[in-house]
Queue: 2 jobs
Job 1
Amino acid sequence: MPGSKTNQKPTGKSARQLLFSEALHHRRPTSTITGPHSPPSPTQSTAMSDKEQSITMEKILQEITAVSRRIEGMDASLSSLTLEIKSMRSDIAGFQTRVTGLEHRMGSLETQMTTYRYRDQDLLYLRIKLTDLEDRSRRDNICLLGIPEHEEGTDMQAFLGSVLPKLTSLDFDPPLEFQRAHRVGPKRSDTSLRPRPIIACLLRHNHARQILQTARKQGPFRIGQHDIRITADYSKDTNERRKAFLALRPRLRQLGMKFGLFDPTRMWVTNNSISKDFYNPDELSLFFDSFQHQHMDSTNPDCSQDTGRENEGGGLYPRAQRKKARSIMTPTSIKGAGMQRG
């Protein structure tokens, strides 16, 4: 009907306003899906924080479990270390006991060594003294080398009493007399072997000295086709020392030195008007070494001859050296050194 407002269509601007108002009135709630730059809703934030907390707690529990396992392993290691330390302490205690025992034993050994050292000095002195006494007991002896076997017959003393004046061309007044005379060593049936030496002990010392001096000056004697040598009779130790000295004579001659063997184991050496005595062959060898770089005249015949002087008196060491060896053993010297004999 004309004039009615209900059937009128909205047109123009009013229609657009009506549509916009309806759209506002009937719009749906905002979707939960947001863009990348949209802030999360409170529900989403709560859900995410709970999840993160659960994950963090799980990690913490895992770490605590790992730490507890490590602590358990460390406890086991500490227990084993404690046992090892206890065993080491017991071993150390045993070692300390053994070391204490060893210290006591070392102390006793040192005391024994001191005692043995003095005993060695005693033995050295006794050996020197014994050798000296043995040489002195042989001062009246002479040794004849090279006399054929069985040449003496049945009476050795009568044979020597007739042969020695002829060999030495000496007039003995009173005549030669012997205490003993015999060969040294077992009998030899084979005459081709070297004859055994003859040891003769004369009754008078001056006769033995005359025979030895003549033998050194005149050299070897002869009986038929055999060379006879007459020497002094010494102990085994003295003979060894004399052999060592005599072996050094070629070197003395090469160096052009005068020399002589005395006492009976003292080598007298003169070089450039300087004389020196040697009682040990090793000392003489060291003396030679000092002349290795020196040029000496070895062509002078006057300086390369043996003096031929030799003392037939017994004694391995001279009086001064025997006195020195004896002073080693005196209680006064031991007490002065601050030691006591065990």
Note: The two ends are 163 Å apart (CA to CA).
Job 2
Amino acid sequence: MKKLICMVLFTMLAAPAAFAQDRYIADKLFTYMHSGPNNTYRIIGSVDAGEKIKLLQANKQTGYSEVLDNRGRKGWVESKFVSRQESMALRLPKVEKELADVKAKLANARQSADSEKAGLASSLDSRNKQISELEQNYSEISQQLTSSQTENRELRAKIDTQKDDLLLKYFMYGGGVAGIGLLFGLLLPHIIPRRKKSPNGWS
């Protein structure tokens, strides 16, 4: 029996908690409109919060202001409820619209920035590739230049050696010709006999 009573009590206590849901008090407030400049005068209606009115006059002694509402009714309301600024009920939709516009602009700006970033990254990759190709070409050209310079030095060395050999050959050839000429000049008088002179001087 005790268990049954405990279960019933637990169910009764848990039911409101399970049924309870989050809600908010509606932002539809109002202030009374009187026929005169204080609360002793007859109430002739009410003005909703955030409603646009025209201020006709204000009574500083009683703290009430005479207003004209959007339905053409004249009456007195407490001056503390009359504000120069629009109420939050009117400003909130404008703020929400401005916020939505700002979010849309921010999304467009981010999309544009992402597109520009992607374009810059693609351009950077392309330029890095071009730089790599240029560096490779420069390396190949440098190797070719080094090879050409080495070959050029070797050819110059061969040409200098050939010049020296040619000069030596010319020198030996000239010396041989000169030696043969000298030898021939020395031997020729001995080979050819001299003619005897006649007594009268004629041969």
Note: Helices lie at 2-19, 88-191.
